[in-house]
Structures are given as structure tokens and as C-alpha cells.
Design goal:
The protein is α/β, with parallel strands linked by helices. The protein is built from eight helices and eleven strands.
Length: about 220
């Protein structure tokens, strides 16, 4: 299975490309914004597509040609302002969904926010609310399609070394989780068709990632 990773140069994305390249049955295509970012991924043996999420759907669809799955791990980051949140976390996500449809790619994995309900929007701190809103509507857009989607809702993301152990369910108590372990959850989700049509929250726990994902 060839997997296009939107946001490959991000912190989850870099872990994900490495883990995918370690899998016998998976192969990564890293979607990056700048050619100078390519060397890291090429050294891992991954294919590279230089496409900006602010480009049009056709450009993203061209990058998606010939792949079997799309994973959206991109994010505007906490310091870019509301405009970039709309452009990347909402519009960028929607464009990759539409690009997947255009390129006849059925499998799609979305990295969302821990809680994206209407209640979460209403209760979010003012500075965080635009991000929750963007993720809410991106998730809604995805679930309205006929794509074979999985939506992963991670807890508070850290750069701690991964434990390869998580707690994973439709609802879990709020907590933290290393980005490295979210990348492992993505790989396990791609390898398990039981995650199709599912959305679940993930925090650090005591169950091996593969076993946790199989139980969903």
C-alpha cells in the first residue's frame, strides 16, 4: 500500500514516514512544501511530492495519483494566527479529501483534535477555539463522504519518546500522548480494516498499539 502523507515534514509526519518505510507492506510518499525538505525523506527511501496545501485541489490530486491511502497530519501550528488555521487545518484538509476522491483513493486517515464536538467549540479557550472549529468542520466534511475514513483524536501531543502503549477508545479521559505513538497508531490503522468508518481518542496507556487498534 502506497500512502501519501500530507504534512510529512511535521513532527508526526516525520515519525510516520520512517515507520511506514519500516513496514514490508507499506510505502510512503511524503508531501512537502519545499524541495529543500526532501533529503530527509529520500534518505529513508520514500517518494517525495512538493505540493503546498494552499495550492488547488488539482495539484494535490496529482500528488495522490497512484497511491492507495492519504493521511492528513498537517497543522498550521499554534503561532500562525486564525487565517492559517482556516487555510491549513480546515481548507487544506478539505482539499486533500477532495483530491483523494478525484484521484480515486478510497482510504483516508485524518489526525484531528482530541474533542471536536459542538460542545468542545463552545467551551474552548478563545485562542484555541478557531482550531477546534476548523477540525470540527474538516471531520464533518470527511464523514459525509464515501471514503474509507478513520479519524484519530489524539490527546495532548508531546515530544516524549514513544512507549508503543496507548489507551484507545471512542471516548477516553483527557491525557497526553507522544507524537511518535500517534504515528504508530496511524500505521496500525492503515493495517487494520476494522478501523474504517471509525473515530477514536488516544492517550498514553498500558496496551500495545497494535492490540489497542485491533480492539476498536
Amino acid at each position: 500500500m502506497k500512502v501519501l502523507i500530507a504534512g510529512a515534514n511535521g513532527q508526526i509526519g516525520k515519525h510516520l514516514v520512517k515507520f511506514i518505510q519500516d513496514e514490508d507492506n507499506l510505502d510512503a510518499k511524503a508531501m512537502i512544501r519545499k524541495q529543500e525538505q526532501a533529503a530527509y525523506f529520500e534518505d529513508l527511501g520514500a517518494e517525495v511530492a512538493v505540493v503546498d496545501l494552499e495550492d488547488d485541489v488539482d495539484a494535490i490530486a496529482k500528488a495522490a495519483e497512484g497511491v492507495d491511502a492519504v493521511v492528513f497530519t498537517a497543522g498550521s501550528g499554534p503561532h500562525t494566527g486564525k487565517d492559517k488555521t482556516i487555510m491549513i487545518d480546515l481548507d487544506g484538509a478539505v482539499k486533500t479529501i477532495e483530491a483523494a476522491k478525484q484521484a480515486n483513493v478510497k482510504r483516508y486517515v485524518m489526525i484531528s483534535s482530541f474533542e471536536t464536538s459542538r460542545e468542545a467549540i463552545q467551551s474552548a479557550p478563545e485562542g484555541f477555539a478557531p482550531y477546534v472549529i476548523a477540525k470540527h468542520y474538516a471531520d464533518e466534511w470527511l464523514t459525509s463522504t464515501d471514503l474509507d475514513y478513520t479519524i484519530i483524536h489524539p490527546g495532548g501531543l508531546t515530544n516524549d519518546p514513544g512507549k508503543n502503549q496507548v489507551e484507545l477508545a471512542e471516548k477516553v479521559e483527557r491525557g497526553q500522548v507522544p507524537r511518535e505513538d500517534i504515528a504508530r497508531v496511524i500505521v496500525a490503522s492503515l493495517n487494520n480494516d476494522s478501523t474504517i468508518g471509525k473515530r477514536f481518542q488516544v492517550i498514553t496507556g498500558n496496551t500495545d498499539v497494535e492490540d489497542a487498534v485491533k480492539s476498536i
